[in-house]
Specification:
262 residues
Length: 262
């Protein structure tokens, strides 16, 4: 009986309408849920998390600090870097030093905020939940001990800390010896051309005539570094051009080079 009643045209039509209504209802529910999900997603994105922000920012600042620190470690002395036009990724040593200091200050500030926000978590590493006793004593002692060893070795200039400093100084000396020609005095690239000509005992007009080979003329108040920046070259190359223009031979009428400095 039930099978025959289901096979009747009226029953088939009724079942077909029910299936169609079910599909419409399901489609509407899916559309409704689909419209609600972006709203919930926006609510989740709009909610600001201070701990997540400080953790990500302190990590980003650490990466910048690490990269700039490595660049500074292998960089030559300031006067040699400026004289030879040394740069990494288009940035000279002055720019890398500024980036390192700025990222270090930002890292310290964000790290302090991170410690404040996670103070209870840090305390949980040192004390138990019941009784207030200490835990992870060996780990805390190891962290303090390693920090103390690094500080003492660095302050006393003992290996391996002193070896790291010696390697950097050796690299700086190699770069300085490779500079041709050497700077006539310390920070000669920052000396105004009027003073530069006076120290070389040559007329200022001769110096300007030797350097004014580009579209932008040099003036008495300009420096070799300024002119090198305009010409996309180095102060050392300009000094070589200047000596050639003045008819000076290698090493003749060249003031002695002063001692090393940072």
């Amino acid at each position: 009986m039930n099978t025959e009643s289901q096979l009747r045209p009226s029953s088939l039509l009724k079942n077909g309408r029910s299936a169609l209504d079910a599909r419409k209802t399901g489609a509407f529910e899916a559309l409704y849920v689909g419209r609600r999900e972006p709203t919930l997603l926006l609510q989740q994105v709009a909610k600001w998390n201070n701990r997540a922000f400080t953790s990500l920012l302190v990590t980003a600042m650490f990466l910048v600090l690490a990269v700039s620190g490595c660049v500074r470690y292998f960089a030559p002395r300031c006067r040699d870097a400026n004289w030879g036009g040394w740069n990494v990724l288009g940035l000279g040593k002055d720019e890398w030093v500024t980036m390192h200091m700025a990222s270090a200050v930002m890292f310290l500030i964000i790290a302090a905020v991170h410690v404040v926000l996670n103070w209870q978590v840090l305390l949980s590493y040192l004390r138990t939940q019941r009784g207030g006793g200490l835990r992870h004593v060996r780990e805390a002692g190891g962290a303090v001990g390693i920090t103390a060893v690094v500080v003492i070795l660095s302050a006393a200039m003992l290996p391996p800390a002193s070896s790291l400093a010696g390697f950097a100084e050796g690299h700086q000396e190699q770069f300085a010896l490779a500079l041709k020609p050497v700077a006539p005095w310390r920070h000669a690239e920052d000396t105004p051309l009027a003073e530069f000509a006076g120290k070389l005992n040559v007329p200022l007009k001769s110096v300007l005539a030797s350097l004014n080979t580009g579209d932008r003329p040099a003036h008495a108040e300009d420096t070799l570094r300024d002119v090198a920046r305009w010409r996309d070259t180095t102060p050392a190359a300009l000094y070589r051009q200047l000596r050639h223009g003045l008819g000076q031979c290698e090493g003749r009428n060249q003031p002695p080079r002063s001692g090393d400095d940072e």
